[in-house]
Design a protein that fits this description.
alpha+beta; 5-stranded antiparallel beta sheet; 3 helices; 5 strands; 26% helix; elongated
Length: 107
């Protein structure tokens, strides 16, 4: 059995707006301590959602999240606290609340 927690990353076209586009998802496997951040590959959709978006900045920003999470700037021996990690994201780019699930593998 694996315990997984995840949070989706949303891009809002304004701080005041309720409109958003999902641009990534952060997974944390509590059981194996593996974590992964995946993000969109088609940035045309993001550009059409908000034509004032600096796509190069967003790409760099998302790559930075991926590097932080996967290369573990946090000590690998310690547990990764997804709840503390996602709290640093505010304004136009925010994570959803953390969801948890259990996966049971049949052999």
């Amino acid at each position: 059995m694996y315990q997984i927690e995840y949070a989706a990353l949303k891009y809002y076209n304004s701080i005041m707006s309720k409109k958003y586009l999902y641009i990534g998802i952060l997974y944390n496997n509590i059981t194996t301590r593996q974590r992964d951040f995946r993000y969109i590959s088609d940035f045309k959709r993001l550009k059409s959602f908000d034509n004032e978006t600096d796509i190069n900045f967003i790409k760099t920003y998302l790559k930075g999240i991926k590097t932080q999470v996967e290369n573990n700037i946090f000590n690998y021996c310690s547990l990764f606290d997804i709840n503390k990690y996602i709290k640093i994201f505010v304004n136009e780019i925010r994570f959803t609340d953390v969801m948890k699930m259990k996966i049971i593998l049949k052999t």
